[in-house]
Amino acid sequence: GERIIDLLPWIGQADTGSTAYRKELLDAILPLLIANPIMGVPDYDSRPELQFLRQGEGLIDLVNSYIGVAVGSGLIGLALFVTVHGVALFGLWRLLRRLDGDARELVRVLFGVYATVLAAIATTSSISIIPPLTWAFAGASSALIAYHAPQRRRPEPRKNGRRRSLNAERYLST
Questions:
Q1: How far apart are the first and last CA of the chain?
Q2: Is the pTM here over 0.70, yes or no?
């Protein structure tokens, strides 16, 4: 029990260097984001005010994918990023209420893993497999939502091959 508590961020004592670095990163990045909220700071790596964050490998590790998106693309990019994933998660949640059986279990598992990945990227940089993984979950979620979407009535083609709109049919039948 004591070992687990020591590993928890901000509570435990096992890795205080990582917590301190994250706090310093946030304290240094926020003024830059406030000064450049629309487009971000894509050249953050060369900014003199961030050089103290450079680590032994010679890079500035953004240790939070959301901060990485905000720095690279501004708050507009961050809003789009969060919106895509938020809409996909919300769609899965709505789908959970409509389905039953094995389909419901599949959606439940996808929702749980996707939500976990989105929580995990708050604690890691966008390196290696992380970006493709998040977009793959967004794509799989969207495909599953579209597959289970209620079928809408499509207008019948007219004799000359053109379609009539549903509204036109209603007015023409009176």
A1: 75
A2: yes
pLDDT digits (tens, 9 = 90+) for 136-156: 999 999 999 999 887 766 666
Is 57 a residue whose pLDDT tops 90? no
Please write down the HEC assignment for all residues of the chain. CHHHHHHCCCCCCCCHHHHHHHHHHHHHHHHHHHHCCCCCCCCHHHCHHHHHHCCCCCCCCCCCHHHHHHHHHHHHHHHHHHHHHHHHHHHHHHHHHHCCHHHHHHHHHHHHHHHHHHHHHHHCCCCCCHHHHHHHHHHHHHHHHHHCCCCCCCCCECCCCCECCHHHHHHHCC
Which residues, 6 or more positions from 106, have their beta carbon under 8 angstroms from its beta carbon? 144
Nearest residue to 134 (alpha-carbon basis) of 123, 147, 119, 144:
119
Neighbour-count burial for 42-65, b at 16+ CB within 10 Å, e otherwise: eebeeeeebeebeeeeeebbbbbb
What is d(CA 69, CA 125) in angstroms, rounded to the nearest whole number? 10
**Predicted confidence (pLDDT) per residue in 61-83, tens digit:** 788 899 889 998 999 999 999 99
Alpha carbons 15 and 10: distance in angstroms, whole number? 9
> What's the CA angle centered on 105, arms 103 and 106, to 5 degrees?
65
